[in-house]
Design goal:
- This protein is of the alpha/beta class.
- The protein folds into two domains: 265 residues, 3-Layer(aba) Sandwich (Aminopeptidase); 125 residues, Alpha-Beta Plaits, CATH 3.30.70.360.
- 29% of the residues lie in helices and 22% in strands.
- It binds zinc ion (ZN).
Length: 401
């Protein structure tokens, strides 16, 4: 079986765009520039205006626009160009094999599948516009999987300036991620940071002459566990996203087994609620841990430091995207597809647009369970349905949300 969206997705899967995820790696599968070139060529062939915006070297956002009726809404369809790495995969990552109603390959599910569906609906709009069509922008960001810097720069496509494609702010943004065609209205954000502790190094044959930084860190980790289990669950709850969480995810320290270590560091992941300020969450932790350390270990409490520059990401709030979400839900339910309004634990590009005050939801084909996996795949049925969902959204979303 083959259809337009299937062939397009095969083409996108064959075009590697692996995010290095902060690692020092190079090679012809890394970064998004091959995808961006492919998209540029596709928009050019379709005959629509497009623009690129360089976020980092070899990493350009690209967007194209179909101009609708003057008073019609501006709908942005957004998908990220990058995929996670291919380490440990048990299938050919860039050979889009179709078997048993599924297409395999890196990005097939997250989120080249969703991108191909959006592009197919966009192409249908360009070639056969309905009466009074909306303006639709197809926007493709870079670096979603590691930092989400691309989404924060997409606003250049609707703000005045040389990259502007539309004359005013969009009415709404639909972000593609694998949601099984449910509408994700809220997700958590995150505060990530390091904790460092110093000690005094000496030969391990005379450990009494030094101060072991790893022992010190083990005390700090106990405090984090206490904070994670006793304090964090009391810091609020969201009806769709549950409670905030904290996890100590990384540890390193020491230079050799025969040296008492003078340094140890850990890295923390604190998931914040959709409306929680990540900076406040970070400050709350540092005050709690510092206070406990001063009380319990005053002799070395001052040797403990926290990241100066924590990585803070907001969540997606459902405080004002209700009209978009319920319109989409009725459109999807009228197609006899199950559709719930949901909160999810993972982060997406959506929060960048929501933070800018634009009604934004996440909606796409495939399940997040297949994203990032060693045999990543997406169901062809999901792709075919998603094309119709996006097409109906373009045609049926009300002009005023
Ligand atoms: Zn994704």
């Amino acid at each position: 079986m083959s259809s337009e969206v299937v062939e397009l997705l095969q083409d996108l899967v064959r075009t590697p765009s692996v995010n290095p995820m902060g690692r020092d790696v190079s090679g012809d599968i890394y970064l998004e520039h091959r995808m961006t070139a492919r998209l540029e060529q596709w928009f050019e062939t379709l005959g629509v205006p497009w623009k690129r915006y360089t976020v980092m070297p070899d990493r350009d956002n690209i967007a194209a626009v179909f101009h609708g009726a003057p008073d019609a809404p501006i709908i942005v369809l957004e998908a990220h160009q990058d995929t996670v790495p291919i380490d440990g995969m048990i299938i050919e990552p860039f050979d889009p094999v179709i078997e048993g109603g599924k297409m395999f390959g890196r990005g097939s599910c997250d989120i080249k599948g969703g991108m191909a569906c959006m592009m197919t609906a966009f192409k249908r709009l360009v070639e056969n516009p309905p009466e009074n069509p909306p303006t639709v922008m197809m926007a493709c960001s870079v670096n979603e999987e590691f930092g989400m810097a691309g989404a924060e720069n997409l606003c250049h496509f609707w703000q005045p300036g040389e990259h502007s494609l539309v004359e005013r702010e969009p009415t709404c943004v639909i972000v593609a991620e694998p949601t099984l065609l449910n509408v994700v209205v809220a997700h958590k954000g995150v505060a990530r940071f390091h904790v460092y502790v110093d000690g005094v190094a000496c030969h391990s044959s005379q450990p009494e002459l030094g101060h072991n930084a790893i022992y010190r860190m083990s005390r700090i980790i106990d405090l984090f566990e206490e904070y994670a289990t006793e304090v964090v669950p009391t810091l609020g709850e969201h009806p769709r996203c549950g409670k905030p969480t904290l996890s100590v995810g990384m540890i390193s320290g020491g230079i050799s087994v025969n040296t008492v270590p003078d340094f140890c560091q850990i890295e923390i992941d604190r998931r914040v609620l959709p409306e929680e300020e990540p900076r406040d969450a970070f400050n709350h932790i540092t005050e709690y841990i510092s206070g406990k350390l001063q009380e319990l270990y005053p002799e070395w409490a001052d040797d403990v430091r926290f990241s100066d520059d924590p990585n803070l990401k907001y969540g997606l709030t459902d405080s004002f995207n209700g009209p978009l979400a319920s319109s989409l839900q009725s459109i999807i339910q009228s197609m006899a597809i199950d559709c719930e309004l949901m909160g999810v634990p993972y982060g997406t590009d959506a929060k960048a647009f929501s933070r800018a005050g634009i009604q934004t939801v996440v909606l796409g084909p495939g399940s997040i369970d297949q994203a990032h996996t060693k045999d990543e795949w997406v169901e062809i049925d999901q792709l075919e349905m998603a094309v119709e969902v996006y097409w109906n959204a373009i045609n049926q979303l009300p002009a005023q949300l």
